[in-house]
Every structure is written in C-alpha cells, then in structure tokens.
Design a protein that fits this description.
The chain is an alpha+beta fold. Helices cover about 55% and strands about 15% of the residues. It has one domain. The protein is elongated, with a radius of gyration of 17 Å. Strands 1-2 form a two-stranded antiparallel ribbon. The protein has four helices and two strands; from the N terminus they run ααααββ.
Length: about 100
C-alpha cells in the first residue's frame, strides 16, 4: 500500500481523493474508511501535506484562543473547545456550541 500512496501523492491526487481510492482498494467494507484514512494520513508520501495541515491547525487554534480572550463567555452552555484528531494528526479544533 505504500507504493500506491506514493503514486497517488506523486500524481497530485488530493488527500481526500486518496482516502476514497484507498477505501475502494481495501474493499469498501465497514472498517475500510478508517483504515484508508490511517493509511493515507500516516503515509510518508504525505509528509508535506501533514506539515502544512499542522501549521494551519496551529494558526486556527491560536486565532480561536485570541477570539475567546476578546469576547464575553456565552451564557448558552458553552462547554469549551474540542480537539478532533486522526491518528497522530490533529485535524481541527471545533467549538461545542448549541
């Protein structure tokens, strides 16, 4: 599967499309999507995208923290930010607001 990930990356196939291709190659069973995400996101061929994504997430988290310190706390039951991750790759920080 490593050579497939290298080929997809070399051809400029996006991470999302690579996950879909990998899922189909795995047989599209109930576990295939999770396995495909792990294979693509942990592939050495995706190191550049992973680093770019990590910088983006860090910038977004910093901006969210700055916005939180500049605004009044919500009285609608705000429970704070959540960190959503894939295997070894932080994906996004979302705010759990109703």
């Amino acid at each position: 599967m490593t050579s497939i990930q290298e080929m997809l990356s070399a051809r400029g196939i996006s991470v999302m499309d690579s996950i879909l291709v990998t899922r189909e190659l795995l047989g599209a069973g109930p576990e295939a999507l999770g396995q495909a995400k792990t294979l693509v996101l942990t592939s050495p061929a995706r190191q550049v995208e992973r680093k770019q994504h990590q910088r983006l997430v860090e910038d977004l988290v910093d901006a969210l923290e700055q916005a939180d310190t500049q605004s009044e706390p919500s009285s609608r039951g705000h429970r704070g930010p959540l960190l959503v991750t894939f295997p070894q790759v932080p994906i996004a920080r979302v705010t759990d607001t109703p």
